[in-house]
Amino acid sequence: MNLILLSKNDFIEDTGRVRIQDHRSAHILKVNKSSVGDELRVGLINGKLGCGRITHVEEGKIEIDVVLDREPPAPLQLTLIFAMVRPRVFKRVLTQVTAMGIKKIVVVNSFRVEKSFWKSPVLEKESLNKYLIRGLEQGQDTIVPEVLIRPLFKPFVEDELPDIVKSTHSFVAHPYTSEPCPYNIGSPVTLAVGPEGGFIPYEVKKLIECGFSAVHLGERTLHVESAISGLISRLM
Amino acid sequence: MNLILLSKNDFIEDTGRVRIQDHRSAHILKVNKSSVGDELRVGLINGKLGCGRITHVEEGKIEIDVVLDREPPAPLQLTLIFAMVRPRVFKRVLTQVTAMGIKKIVVVNSFRVEKSFWKSPVLEKESLNKYLIRGLEQGQDTIVPEVLIRPLFKPFVEDELPDIVKSTHSFVAHPYTSEPCPYNIGSPVTLAVGPEGGFIPYEVKKLIECGFSAVHLGERTLHVESAISGLISRLM
Fold first, then answer.
1. Same domain for B109 and B65
2. What DSSP string describes B60-84?
């Protein structure tokens, strides 16, 4: 936890002091081994970053005096669309791309996605939130990304995607194209990443009709996590 | 498993036929659900890629007729040096960078590395080999990377590193520098990645003395896996 994220409810009314007693206080005491007087990096969810000083510790409960005075880092101007993956991989991808600063994430279907993945509890709101917060803590950011879950490919691409790609450069990762992924685009991007083995030709065709360019990241088949972080770091 | 990797011992003497009965045959039968007549992508460890056709299946034992006729993909011209990480993360990093095509990997110490990590069985030869092979299967490659384990930072940097960096552009990922990581270097690279939070100033200084430039990948703190795949995809 590189940052302690606070919500408005943590504040003792009308003060700059918070009181917490949950996994965060446990982490501060047991992992960081912090105590009264120590300083911590803190942030308000969807608000500013700042500094906290521990004023009181009692039976796992912590009070911290908080000053929030810095804007969070600028969002990455990239909308990520990726095909649903195995739930345990999904958690890592969500955390990772949140840590990288992405603020709009769309999880879509693809022919090669196992149907059972869509029934996983990782897609429930509470679970999504857990891994988004973990990503913000990792990346030292406060702005919670928007996540859209779209288990139907065609209506998403036809009805919603045109608005998303407007005024962006849009790329679909496609292992079977001759065009390497470009570098350092310098303007907003929409990036679509299929399942391992890629989107099927029909899906790629639909994305190309919507303005996407098909690009590859070398001739090797990468795991979806490597592919996503590689593509993002190359494009942005 | 995108590729079935074979060793010379798998071949029935002086023929183009292999006989396997281990996790590979189990995978072919249970996960791929392949049977007699089906074709598979195969490769010889440190040799060529090709195609195999299943000729016989019996009690978990498989015979495959193999034609090896293609060179594996060109190695990535990047030597990766990274600080030892938590063993379960180490496995994923090793597999991931092997899948990306890196052929020389050095695992080094850093002040911020937990000492206990160096005692982990993941660093034993058999374990290293397991995750390297997994990476080759993922990336559809045959050439096993060389892995150097260097639990002493100073002698490694002073005695071995000068030869490694010779004729390469060398970069150290350093969160506290103003220089962003460059794109698409187009020539051989040596990349050093510290633990989360980075190498300490003394270590960065030693690397800079050895010709490294300190670069960052944005103001967010990334997990080592994201940072490594991001840096590689950006530089190469």
1. no
2. TEEEEEEEEEEPPPPPEEEEEEEE-
User: Burial level of A62, CB count in 10 A (0-12/13-18/19+)?
Assistant: buried
pLDDT tens by residue, B100-153: 999 999 999 999 999 999 999 999 999 999 999 999 999 999 999 999 999 999
The answer to whether A234 faces chain B, any CB pair under 8 Å, is yes
Residues B175 and B127 in one domain: yes
Q: What is the pLDDT of residues A128-150, one digit of tens each?
A: 999 999 999 999 999 999 999 99
Q: In angstroms, rounded to a whole number, what is the distance separating the alpha carbons of residues B9 and B7?
A: 5
What's the CA angle centered on B219, arms B218 and B220, to 5 degrees? 95
In this structure, chain A runs to a length of 236
Contact, A19 vs A62, CB < 8 A? yes
Q: Which domain holds residue B16?
A: 4-70
Which chain A residues are Cβ-neighbours of B186 within 8 angstroms?
none
Residue A62 belongs to what H/E stretch? strand A61-70
Of the candidates B144, B151, B148, the residue with the CA atom closest to the CA atom of residue B113:
B151
B221 touching A, CB under 8 A? Answer: yes
Domain final residue pick, A70, A102, A123: A70
CATH of the domain at B56: 2.40.240.20
Q: B220 at the A interface (CB within 8 A)?
A: yes
**Do the chains contact at B221 and A99, CB–CB below 8 Å?**
yes
The answer to whether B139 contacts A222, with C-beta atoms less than 8 Å apart, is yes
What is the Cα gyration radius of chain A?
Answer: 20
Which residues of chain B have a CB within 8 Å of the CB of A233?
A: 181, 217, 229-231, 233-234
Which positions in chain B touch A230 (Cβ < 8 Å)?
100, 229-230, 232-234
What is the tens place of the pLDDT at every residue in A66-76?
A: 999 999 999 99
Instruction: Say yes or no: B143 and B46 in one domain.
Output: no
